[in-house]
Amino acid sequence: MNNNCLQTENLSIGYKEKILLNNLNLEIKKGEMVCLLGPNGVGKSTLIKVLTKILQPLHGEVFIVDENNFVNINKISPLKLAKHISIVLTEQLPSSNFTVKDIVSLGRVPYTNWLGNLTKKDDIIIENAMEKVNITHFKNRQVDSLSDGEKQRVMFAKALAQDTDLIILDEPTAHLDIVHRAELLSLLKKLAIETQKGILISTHELEMAIQAADSIWLIDNENELEVSSPEDLVLSGKFMKIFKGNHVCFNEQNGTFKIKNRALKDINLIGEGNRYYWTKHALEKKQYKIINKKSDISVTVKPNLWQLEKEGKVTELGNISALIKKL
Questions:
Q1: How confident is the model at residue 86, as a pLDDT?
Q2: How many percent of the chain have pLDDT more than 90?
Q3: In this structure, how many other beta carbons lie within 10 angstroms of the beta carbon of residue 175?
Q4: 143, 171, 287, 292: which has the highest count of C-beta atoms within 10 A?
C-alpha cells in the first residue's frame, strides 16, 4: 500500500512573467510532519496554493492518493478534493455568533447531504476532533470570545473533523505568542503520529521547525528548493547561508539565531554549566570578547557567586546584574 498522501511531478509554479520554483518532485507521507521554510517572497504561499488547487501550476502535476491510486488533483471535483486535503490559512476567523462546535462542524460539509444534516457518525468525529486538540471544555463558547491561540486550535479541530489524509497549514503561528507557537507545533507533531495524517506547515519558525519537523522543504534566495532532514540541513550550512545577515547569525551547534555583538574588550571567563553560559551571554552583549587566558579583567563563575578580578582587586557579587554594573 502506498504511504504517500501527496506527491508532485516536474512541478513549476509562479506567474507568466516569473517562475518562482521549477521542476519540483516532492512527496508527503502519512504520519509525517513537513515544514516549508524560506525567506519572504520566494514562493512558499504560492506553492501552498498550487498544492491545494487554489492556483494552477505553470507546468507539472500534483497527485493525491485515492484508494491507493495516484490521481491528479485537477481531474477531481472540489468536493472530492476536500475529502483528501484540508487547509488552514493565515486569515483569522471572521466576527460571528458561531460557537466553537459550529465552526468545527463545518469540517463535515464534504460528507453531509444537500441539507447539511449531521449524522451520529459526524457527531462522533466532531467530538473526537475537539477532544484531540483539547477544546471540548469550551465547545459552546462563541468564537469571538476566544484568544488567538484558542481560535487556531478551533481551526485545526475543523481540519481534523474534515478527516483528510493531508492537512496543510499556512503560517499557523503568525498571530501567536512564543508559548502558544510552541504548543501548537508540538500538538501538530503529536497528532501527525497519532492520526497518521500527513501535515505540511509553511512557517517562519525555523528554530521550532528544526526541533519538530520530520522533513524540511527549504527554499533559498535563488528559488531552489531542497528537501532534507532538519539535522542534515544544519550540518550542511544551508540555514547559515540562507538566513545570514549583518547583525544576526545562525548557531549550528544549537540551531538558534544569535545577534552579532561587536567585541571591543577582552575578558577571561572561568566556569561551567548554565551559570557560565548566561554569564557569557551577558558579557558578549556588553561587547566583551571571551578568552581563556590571562587578561586585565577576569570573572570566575562559582556555585553561589561571581568573583570579579579587576585592577588587582577581587570583588564577590551575587548575580549577573551586579557583575555587569561593577565592570
A1: 95
A2: 58
A3: 15
A4: 143
Provide the residue type at 272 as one letter.
E
The residue written with cell numbers 540541513 in the block is 233
Q: Residue 326: name the closest of 269, 311, 260 by CA.
A: 311
Concatenated DSSP letters for 79-93? HHHTTTEEEE-SPPP
Question: What value does the CA radius of gyration of the chain take, rounded to a whole number of Å?
Answer: 25
Is 209 in contact with 27 (CB distance < 8 Å)? no
DSSP state of 99: B
Q: Is 293 exposed, middle or buried (0-12, 13-18, 19+ CB in 10 A)?
A: exposed
Q: Is 262 exposed, middle or buried (0-12, 13-18, 19+ CB in 10 A)?
A: exposed
Residue matched to cell numbers 563563575: 301
Q: Given the C-alpha cell 471540548, which residue does it identify?
A: 136
0.70 surpassed by pTM: yes
User: Which one-letter DSSP state was computed for residue 66?
Assistant: E
- Provide the residue type at 152 as one letter: Q
Which ranges of the chain would DSSP assign to H, the alpha helix?
44-51, 78-81, 100-105, 120-132, 148-161, 178-195, 206-212, 230-236, 238-242, 273-285, 320-326
The predicted-structure confidence for 188-219, as pLDDT tens digits, reads as follows 899 899 999 999 999 988 888 998 999 999 99
pLDDT digits (tens, 9 = 90+) for 230-284: 999 988 888 888 887 767 777 777 777 777 777 788 999 999 999 999 999 899 8
207, three cell numbers = 528554530
Collapsing DSSP states into helix, strand and coil, what is residue 167? strand
